[in-house]
Amino acid sequence: MTKRAIPLIAIVLFAALLCTAGCTTQPLVTGENATPAVADTSLLVYSGAGLKKPMSEIGEAFTDKYGIGVEYTFAGSGTLMTQMELSRKGDAFIPGGTPDYRIAREKGLVGEPGYVAYHVPVIAVQKGNPHNITSVDDFARPGLKIALGGVNSTSIGGAGDKLFRAHGIRDAVEANVVLRAPTINEVVVAMNMGTADAALLTLDQINPEKMDAIDLPQEDNLALIVPIGATTFTTQPDAAQAFVEFVTSDEGKAIFAKHGFPTYPDPAYAGIEP
Questions:
Q1: What integer pLDDT is reported at residue 39 of this predicted model?
Q2: Which of 208, 220, 148, 209 is nearest to 184 (CA)?
Q3: What number of other Cβ atoms are within 10 A of residue 148's Cβ?
């Protein structure tokens, strides 16, 4: 060994000792005693478009608490599942209801869910209800303009389709449909602009300045529980699980309540099961 090699080896050994002392990765700490994580971590969350307002606020609150960034893809649940299947990237999935989450789980895309809130469908009509719509059966009345979410792309679109079939009016309703939207947000726009007479929306989407809401009867209750879970292909499972736990915590649920969602569990919806 040359004399020049000895100092070089000493430098390498010294650097290794420094890294051992100061370059360890700290685990993510959650709970009441949590502090912001010192990490350049960012999560990708697939979220139903109808959950954009509460989830955007939750992302900011989570980042403030843990120092972990949150990026979203907002779309209809069907579109999100297709993206997840094709990309195999991302960390958490929160659709508008458990039926879509169940499909994602059957595909092996997500793990065990937690539950956050309720998506409560109602009949939305133009302010003052000029067409005197009183029930979902009126959606079949000739000449009405109906806006609905996509059957395969939105949770409420799929639930509404089952309801129309149960009432034996599916074909008559479809004849009146002027919009089948890929997300619930486009249906809201149609109602706000007055291009549709009625729609199926969720309670949190009703704009009281433009719309009136008519509750569905108990036998037609389409309330959906909003689930969230980590993906099976996340590369940062600790951070993903911390996000899921934050969304389902009292703090996360309070944000949903602020935006008009009943939070889970609620005795008023005791008959609704995941």
A1: 47
A2: 148
A3: 28
